[in-house]
Design a protein that fits this description.
- Helix 1 (3-18) packs antiparallel against helix 2 (22-35), helix 10 (196-209) runs antiparallel to helix 11 and helix 16 runs parallel beside helix 18.
- 69% of the residues lie in helices and 2% in strands.
- The chain has helices spanning 3-18, 22-35, 40-52, 56-69, 74-83, 89-103, 107-113, 162-175, 178-191, 196-209, 212-232, 242-245, 247-252, 260-281, 285-298, 304-320, 324-337, 344-356, 360-370, 377-400, and strands at residues 120-123, 139-142.
- The radius of gyration is 26 Å and the shape is globular.
- A two-stranded antiparallel ribbon has the order 1-2.
- The chain is mostly helical.
- The model is unreliable at 118-160, 232-240 and 254-259 (pLDDT under 50).
- The protein has four domains: 3-114, Serine Threonine Protein Phosphatase 5, Tetratricopeptide repeat, CATH 1.25.40.10; 162-232, Tetratricopeptide repeat domain (Serine Threonine Protein Phosphatase 5, Tetratricopeptide repeat, Alpha Horseshoe); 263-337, Tetratricopeptide repeat domain (Serine Threonine Protein Phosphatase 5, Tetratricopeptide repeat); 343-400.
- Residues 212-268 form a coiled coil.
Amino acid sequence: MSDFDIAEMLHDANKFADDNNYVEAAEIYLKITNIDNNCTSAWYGLGVSNAKLGDINKSIRSFEQAHRINPDYGPTNANLAFLLEKKDPERSVNFAKMAIESIGEDTELLRIANSMDNIEINLFDYSHKYMEGKNLQIVSLPAKTIPEENIQEEEVDFVNSRTARSSRANKMTEKGDHAAAVNEWKELLKKDSSDINSWKGLADALSKAGYIERANQCLQRVEELIEMSKEERVIDENEEMENLISAAKEVKEKINTIEENNSRDVNESIEWYNKGLILLTENNPMESLNCFDKAIEGAPEEEIELRVRSYNGKGHALYQLEKFVESIQEYHSAIVLDPTSVTGRTLYNMGSSYASIELYADAVKCFEQAKNRGLGKEDQRLCQTQISRCKLLIKEQKKQG
């Protein structure tokens, strides 16, 4: 369908909405989003129509989709601030502040933006001592707020790695928010159009959203990429694994220096290691764990490099499975074996795992060290962003504690 057809549909939907015929307007807006999932005008109109029809949850989801496409549009942020005021006060405050930046100060938006300042915390007992049978009055303590000048205004997703974002897309699919999931997978593919995991995720999200033909096109692309991978023997999982990819070749070059009685074990371990990497690229972290374990078990003690890379592989797989504590343990195992082999990417992954379990101070340490371990300028900038975000969250923890 051409842009002209979509423009004509938008005109019809807007006319229905102007005449207060919100049911008809919503139907047309929804059709447009099915044709073009990135049409901000349609998502915005759908949000207004759903609100007028009394379906607040659908209205919020529509405005959230409009916000993801264009996060700087003031009316979208303002509407979300009002709709979320009772449901999610913290997010409501954030949207109100963003709306004020775009459309200027508004009495109601200012009220929402400042609604979480100086909240009173009610306690039944002001004493820290436990005493039975004691009758005390309720007291109110003013909550401490973080001074505005100490808050970094950088709006960045906390864990901005591809693995974390794909996990977020999967969760959206589980919740039934298929449009948001599709958008997440598309964003991932903009950064790496050859990522098999992202194509599979997009296919799954499209299928559950009812777009079977588009889903099949994505699956066809997956088959093409897998075939290319087999032909070229290139394992291109994502940036977080780029240091693991060359391990097989590097390890094979060492085989000539190993005793004859160990060569068979080494070859088998390398095969298990390679299989583990391939399974990770195919979004199968559970089976890849078993392969990395066998690689470690079969590798001779002197094969430090292979063992280190296998432990790092386990760390990546466990991170994909959202087993962050175990992921950290595997990264530590690799570091203990050879502290000099620690890369900036490994430290960044450890930091992301620490952050995922809210150990922000440890995360900061990892991100700080990662900056000086061979990362490019863009990755260093990302590390600094994560450091700033973690430090802000540390302050929030202290405030809540």
